[in-house]
């Protein structure tokens, strides 16, 4: 499968962010992409650096001109498109939601982010209700996609459940970066841990992984911190954790990466981790902690 990724530096101009994404999607389609993956919350700046009720105005319903835009772009390009939206489900009820559009523009399915962080500059619990759709892959014309979102990528349980539900690929729209006060050594440790844990999901489950991050500096509107420098480094990993592609940590990037979707079958024959799991001894995994 030819997978297109778009690593973009966003500005406060939402219409321009969306316009640039649309143009890049069409360009990737012209270059042969069959699946295109966008970064987390790709229409706006990463608004979760502050807690402000005014930011709820950025949320959209799933029947809106915004979703119609991405539906029409997917149809025009003839590709499967993985998006990331701030969903207004009802007054006072909001989700961080990935919508997947089919080649004809129809909605193939949605996933609501399950793990919600609450850290300095990442105040997502103020905005997002945890997802209620479970870890269910989305069936598309290019395969069964295990779509997760950003903070979900640190949890092997989420990747495993997607694999157990028949996902053929793990996909992570992402928004993650460095805080300005961190040392260069700490920054490198953070990014390498982020790449390593997701490559581990590929190995443990015998599945390719596609991770698309935003890039560039976005200021903290409150001025309390130096803002976030999103570290890019979007990447695609094969089912043995092998890096098939890794983007720049500081530049906008669009790329097509060829992924051999048949390779997972063979890797799982060589490394039968799913077969050898001792599921009868794993019941304690449902505990918060074993005292």
SSE arrangement:
Layout (H helix, E strand, L loop, with lengths): L1 E6 L6 H17 L4 E3 L27 H13 L2 E3 L2 E6 L2 E9 L5 E6 L25 E3 L2 E5 L8 H9 L4 E6 L2 E3 L4 H22 L3 E5 L1 E4 L9 E4 L3 E3 L5 E4 L6 E6 L4 H8 L21
Parallel strand pairs: 1-2, 2-3, 8-9, 9-11
Antiparallel strand pairs: 1-16, 3-5, 4-5, 5-6, 7-8, 10-13, 11-14, 12-13, 14-15
Describe this structure in words.
This protein is of the alpha+beta class and 291 residues long. The chain is 24% helix and 26% strand. It has helices at residues 14-30, 65-77, 156-164, 184-205, 263-270; strands at residues 2-7, 35-37, 80-82, 85-90, 93-101, 107-112, 138-140, 143-147, 169-174, 177-179, 209-213, 215-218, 228-231, 235-237, 243-246, 253-258. The strands form three sheets. Strands 1, 2, 3, 4, 5, 6 and 16 form a seven-stranded mixed β-sheet that branches. β8 (143-147), α3 and β9 (169-174) form a beta-alpha-beta unit. α1 (14-30) packs parallel to α2 and α3 runs parallel beside α4 (184-205). It is globular. The relative contact order is 0.15.
């Amino acid at each position: 499968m030819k997978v297109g990724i778009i690593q973009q530096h966003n500005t406060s101009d939402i219409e321009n962010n969306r316009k640039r994404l649309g143009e890049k999607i069409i360009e990737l389609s012209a270059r042969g992409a069959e699946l295109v993956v966008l970064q987390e919350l790709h229409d706006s700046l990463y608004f979760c650096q502050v807690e402000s009720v005014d930011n709820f105005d950025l949320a959209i319903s799933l029947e809106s001109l915004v979703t119609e835009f991405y539906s029409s772009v997917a149809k025009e390009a003839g590709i499967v498109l993985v998006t990331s939206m701030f969903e207004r489900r009802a007054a006072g009820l909001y989700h961080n939601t990935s919508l997947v559009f089919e080649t004809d523009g129809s909605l193939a399915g949605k996933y609501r982010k399950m793990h919600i962080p609450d850290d300095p500059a990442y105040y997502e619990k103020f905005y997002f209700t945890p997802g209620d759709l479970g870890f269910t892959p989305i069936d598309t014309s290019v395969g069964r996609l295990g779509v997760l979102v950003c903070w979900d990528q640190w949890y092997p349980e989420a990747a495993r459940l997607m694999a157990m539900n028949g996902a053929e690929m793990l996909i992570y729209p992402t928004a993650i970066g460095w805080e300005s006060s961190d040392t260069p050594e700490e920054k490198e440790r953070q990014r390498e841990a982020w790449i390593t844990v997701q490559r581990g999901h590929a190995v443990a489950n015998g599945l390719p992984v596609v991770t698309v991050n935003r890039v560039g500096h976005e200021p903290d509107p409150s001025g309390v911190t130096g803002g976030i420098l999103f570290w890019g480094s979007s990447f695609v990993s094969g089912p043995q954790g092998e890096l098939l592609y890794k983007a720049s940590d500081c530049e906008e990037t669009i790329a097509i990466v060829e992924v051999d979707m048949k390779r997972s079958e063979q890797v799982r024959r060589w490394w039968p981790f799913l077969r050898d799991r001792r599921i009868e001894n794993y019941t304690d995994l449902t505990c918060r902690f074993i005292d």
